[in-house]
Amino acid sequence: MSDTTLKATAAGSGASATERFLTDKTDVSGPRADTARVNTLATEVITTVHDVIRRHQVTYEEYNALKSWLISVGQDGEWPLFLDVWIEHVLEEVATATRKGSKGTIEGPYYVPSAPTLPSVSVLPMRDTEAGTPLLFQGQVTGVDGEPLAGALLEMWQADDDGLYAQFAPGIPEWNLRGGVVTDDEGRFAVTTIQPAPYQIPTDGSCGRLIAAAGWHAWRPAHIHLKVSAPGHQPLTTQLYFKDGAHIQDDVASAVKPELVLDPRPNATGVAEVTYDFVLAPVS
Ligand code: MBD
Ligand code: FE
């Protein structure tokens, strides 16, 4: 394969994320939102834009720059990225405000369902040459009364040591650093993985252009994504971060919470190890 085929590009990851969303999340046969609700939300969004234009005396030049940028977000396939980076954290806050159990955070654009399932003690699928510091991640899944949840599914996905996700960047095996770990009879799991690298929003696409134009930075702190599910319980979508990691205080996606920060320590064999338990709320 040539260098260009293997290069991660904004348009490449954007196209994959858009395709993923259209496959998993758009149920065209589902119920339509009711007219009153659409009227309320659409009117409020549009009038909020009107207010911004008046308040800041927005010019035609700026209006055309916005038009051109909105068109390019779609062309780059970066709507999933844009929405999950700048909007999803408020959705998550509203959706889980009264939920009991572990705190969660946003899903982001790179979840893929039906990853290979793995036993409770596993190595996350990785290349023989996988770069990065090994990490032993272990814990227990329980309900809110402390009852162990045997056979819970702990889906994990993460970036590699280059900050790239399998299926959204070229040249990485399909299920690399992705898997669904099944908890044992006591709800426990122990997974060997690597510590992911921080993630940079692609600088060569529309989201990158917005970030550069506004003088922001493009970084998410290193994180491991998880979806924890068990029958009779509400699934938990979360991410875990690393204490003192770069951008832990200024995540571009505003998705860090103090409850989600790991502090791995070397174990007797010198491998970084951390224990983190998940508490799932019952279905309401
Ligand atoms: C990511 O890896 C991510 O987790 C989010 C939320 C947005 C962009 C990239
Ligand atoms: Fe991520």
Report on this structure.
The chain has helices at 3-6, 10-24, 35-56, 60-75, 79-86, 88-95, 206-214; strands spanning 117-118, 121-123, 134-143, 153-158, 178-182, 188-194, 199-200, 219-220, 223-229, 236-242, 261-262, 265-266, 272-275, 278-280. It has 7 helices and 14 strands. A 6-stranded mixed β-sheet has the order 1-5-4-9-10-11, with no helix packed on it. Strands 2, 3, 6, 12, 13 and 14 form a 6-stranded mixed β-sheet that branches. Strands 7-8 form a two-stranded antiparallel ribbon. With 284 residues, it is of the alpha/beta class. The radius of gyration is 20 Å and the shape is globular. The chain has a single domain, classed as Sandwich (Protocatechuate 3,4-Dioxygenase, subunit A). Residues 81, 84-85, 106, 108-110, 199, 220, 253, 255 line the site of 3-methylcatechol. Fe (iii) ion binds at residues 108, 110, 199, 223, 225.
Describe the structure in brief.
With 284 residues, the protein is α/β, with parallel strands linked by helices.
